[in-house]
From TrEMBL:
The keyword Transmembrane helix applies. InterPro entries: GPCR_Rhodpsn, GPCR_Rhodpsn_7TM, TAAR. PANTHER family: HISTAMINE RECEPTOR-RELATED G-PROTEIN COUPLED RECEPTOR (PTHR24249), TRACE AMINE ASSOCIATED RECEPTOR 19P-RELATED (PTHR24249:SF381). Its main location: membrane. It comes from Esox lucius. Residues 67-314 form the G-protein coupled receptors family 1 profile domain. GO terms for molecular function: trace-amine receptor activity. This is G-protein coupled receptors family 1 profile domain-containing protein. It is found in: Cell membrane.
Length: 351
């Protein structure tokens, strides 16, 4: 996480890890400040590229919000689909919704505009939200992997071990730990004392290399060391069970149907995990470190596309999501009003 933000724009304060980000100064450079601070040089894009990219990023943001709202409303409204697995999907959709609402729009401004004009506190908020979404996604994927591991490897005990209450407690712990950890990370690392005038001034203190290393271990190495072995074990066991399903007799039709349902859920979670690792792999950060700053900016945006893809995966593999989405769209009501209605009902239930 931390490596993405230290070099997203042209800077005189180039990271020691990335000499390729240093830029030559030109006499005709324009600056964000009148004092001619070279750390605030402006760069320009052609009008056609500028408009095209803004439209593209805006569409990604809007569709991400829309699709994840559909997921949240679908699971919240129908009690029959409020299983432990789907509650984990609901939590992931909430973090993806934050990405679409805050992170993608702010990143769009950061990439497209030469100067960071949103202020130092929004800089910290943007990083905080971005890091929370990353942590929550990884936390949810760890819980999803555990859920599928128990469902596939110990199916008889699944309903005793993995309950709705247990899942909600685990999710609450995940959200709390993510908020506390990332708040501490931002407090230690983000320099909010520098007046924000350019995007690159929204940066991490470069001297804290140990923070980057610890964060890389906690945010990537530890979760992936749990996610990958669990899913490999799930794959091996599921493959073995698939052979048994094919040899099932007619008298075992119900068992076969149940096994197919579990197999579909396992396959869906497996694709979601693969999708996340593909976009958020630590090599993405390392690759950014050795890219030029413009390319690094767009590569750093790429992982957020993950939040756009997840609801599409649900649509392909979950019939209940397709049916619920169709019913919601037929209501001809703004989806935001439906979401607020769901939120209001949930608050009343808690009270």
């Amino acid at each position: 996480m931390t490596l993405l933000w230290s070099h997203t724009g042209p800077s005189r304060r180039t990271s020691a890890f990335n000499p390729l980000l240093q830029m030559e100064e030109h006499e005709d450079d324009q600056y964000c400040f009148q004092d001619g601070n070279s750390s605030c040089r402006k760069y320009t894009l052609s009008t056609s590229i500028y408009i095209t990219l803004y439209i593209f990023f805006s569409l990604i943001s809007a569709v991400t919000v829309f699709l994840n709202l559909l997921v949240i409303i679908s699971i919240s409204q129908i009690r029959q689909v409020q299983t432990p697995t789907n509650l984990l999907i609901l939590s992931l959709a909430l973090s993806d919704l934050l990405v679409g609402l805050i992170v993608i729009p702010a990143n769009t401004v950061a990439i497209m505009e030469p100067c960071w004009v949103l202020g130092k506190y929004f800089c910290a908020l943007l990083m905080f939200t971005s890091f929370i979404c990353t942590s929550l996604s990884l936390g949810n994927l760890v819980l999803m992997s555990i859920d599928r591991y128990v469902a596939v490897c110990d199916p008889l005990m699944y309903h005793l071990k993995i309950t709705v209450t247990t899942t909600m407690c685990c999710l609450a712990i995940t959200w709390c730990c993510s908020i506390i950890y990332n708040a501490a990370l931002i407090k230690m690392s983000v320099n909010v004392q520098v007046p924000s005038g350019c995007f690159e001034e929204c940066y991490f203190v470069e001297g804290f290399v140990w923070v980057n290393i610890i964060d890389l271990v906690i945010s990537n190495v530890v979760p992936c060391s749990a996610i990958i072995p669990l899913n490999l074990k799930i794959f091996v066991v599921a493959r073995s069970q698939a052979r048994k399903v094919f040899s099932a007799t007619v008298s075992g039709d119900k068992t076969v149907q149940a096994s197919r349902s579990e197999k579909k859920a396992t396959k869906t979670i497996g694709i979601i995990v693969f999708n996340y690792i593909l976009f958020w792999n630590p090599f993405t950060y390392i690759f950014c470190m050795f890219s030029n700053y413009k390319f690094a900016s767009f590569i750093s945006f790429l992982p957020f596309i993950n939040s756009f893809i997840n609801p599409i995966i649900y649509a392909f593999f979950y019939p209940w999501f397709k049916e619920t989405a169709k019913r919601i769209l037929k209501l001809n009501k703004p989806i935001l009003f439906l979401f607020l209605g769901v939120l209001s009902n949930q608050i009343k239930r808690v009270k």
